Automatic annotation (TrEMBL):
It comes from the Bacteria. Pfam families: FixS (PF03597). PANTHER family: FIXS PROTEIN. It comes from Sphingosinicella rhizophila. The lineage of its organism: Bacteria, Pseudomonadati, Pseudomonadota, Alphaproteobacteria, Sphingomonadales. This is Cbb3-type cytochrome oxidase assembly protein CcoS.
Length: 48
């Protein structure tokens, strides 16, 4: 039973820190250009 008293707050802390990291990524414009990286692989940069 004492294990649950430790594991539940740890799980809540990890979940809240993940949620905070997600909101930080949204605020710092990490998800602005979702298609740019996917289409960048199709561009041929080599010049012969």
């Amino acid at each position: 039973m004492t294990g649950l008293a430790v594991l539940i707050p740890v799980a809540l802390l990890l979940g809240l820190s993940g949620l905070a990291a997600f909101f930080w990524a949204i605020r710092s414009d990490q998800f602005d250009d979702l298609d740019g990286a996917a289409l960048r692989i199709l561009i041929d940069d080599e010049e012969d």
